[in-house]
Amino acid sequence: MKVRAFTALAVTTISLAIATGVPAYAASAGSAPTTAPAASAPAAPASAPDTARGQAADELDTVYEVVKTAKGYAITVFDPAAGVSNAQLRSELAKAGHKVLAKGTNPGDAIAAASGSTSVTATAAAVSTSCQAYGTAREWCGHRWAANGFEDPAVYMLDHTSSAWPVSAATNTWYQAQGIDAYYRWYTNGCPGGGRHCVHVYNAYYGATGWAGLTTWGTDSTGDYDNTTNVTVKLNDTYGGTAANHRNVACHELGHALGLNHNTSTGSCLYYMQGTTLYPNSDDFNILPRMYGY
Ligand SMILES: [Zn+2]
To answer: Which residues surround ligand 1, an ion (CB under 5 A)?
Structure first.
């Protein structure tokens, strides 16, 4: 069941947005979706789940970078622009000085290897075995938001982007998912706190980096997801493309921010490469309540 506890807050935000003259699209903060929830009682998955690690196929590959931070580690997933293979993306990132993981390496295992800690190794093993797949959808292993006393985790997408990026529309699509509540919020309104999570969404001409979008989250020293640190999403204007391409990448990165990994179907916006698919597929909607215990 969706939590409506933020109705009063959302109304306040809308009033504030109008009064302060922020862009019109900020006024949709916290608004209810205009279509019926897509996640109904699940039927059989669209195809058999793939839970193998180190997959050979490009669409089952994810390009990660793991960087040590003061608190733990920052894990970034880089998403290739249209026409860029994962191998080409790894090559471009390495040339630019990124510490990109070899194909098939799971970030938890990389952190365990880097730290040499047995506790981290245990955590990585636990993450490896608890990762969920449902049909063509997969979980971004080890990245689950805490509910912090709410029925479902509350995740605010703080929009720093230009009007070229449909962050509001993409958020409202994800809001339809059961098990987690994704809210839109213009960035000047700030992160609401009180156990609610925030994702900062930026855009810029980041250059011909090979990636159309990226999502970064932080871990604590054991490699576990740090629920006190915000997630960052970057949308690359250099590969912006058409309106459909923008929507595709926004949908994709916000899906990562909610804890999803790549979907093996081109019918999902979480397919690994930039395209024109605007929405998640039914498997994406069905895996979220399983991850978040709905
Ligand atoms: Zn991705």
So the answer is: 79
